[in-house]
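Lecture notes, unit on protein representations.

Consider one protein chain, 256 amino acids long.
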Amino acid sequence: MLILSFSGKLGKFWKLEQEERGSDLYSFSKSNIKKAFGSFVLQKHSWKGGSHYDIRIDEGEDYLLEWSLQKDPRKYEIDESEKVVLKKCYDKSWLTFEGKRKVGNVMTDVKILDSGKVDFIEKSQLFRSFIFHGDSLKGYYVLKSDGKEWRFIRSALPSMKKELKYEEKSNFIRVHLHDIRDFTRCEGEEKAKRYKIPKLPEGVEANICLFPRPGTIHGAKIQSLKFDKKLWSIEKIKREFNFKSYIEWEGVQIRG
């Protein structure tokens, strides 16, 4: 589900929700959320014999979304992750609490490490993404589930990382313009042809992939280009092909 923000007579927040996983059909309806961003707190909980880190997020519901981590998330490398359990915390005083407090039967010292604004990028049954705007917890993170367990992952939007990597197969050469891990999914070959990208020479096809953007529908980028080896060699590509316009191209998701 994507939360969309509009100005004018249309109203403030609407939601774009996928009918079925992997489907191109979406429903568009008014959202009952009050905002496309919220607040977060990162706390360290210490007790005799152990400690962990907690992230709590206020999404405008009557509870806080909460999960615990063994490692300080501010020290994560890109693509580093941890298995987590998502919980609902109905005591909103936790968002600002610092000091000693009994958690279960254990006296715990709670320290606020950071707090601030968080943008809600995407929310579905198996995927959530956020951009944190704290003093020290900053950037793009995702919660991803395989249907059995959740993982909290530090990631990067496509604009943050670019690579030009050559991958040679028996009958084609694929040149990666952006890291495939930065995208939520890619379009099929036929649908990719519907995007208005810079004109491609003979024997070259584009792989269009989608990435989340704050408060609107997915953006689209050319993740890679596929070169037919009957017409192209790696030497010819490096000598004759100008990648600049294809790396810089950005569109929006075509639905239907």
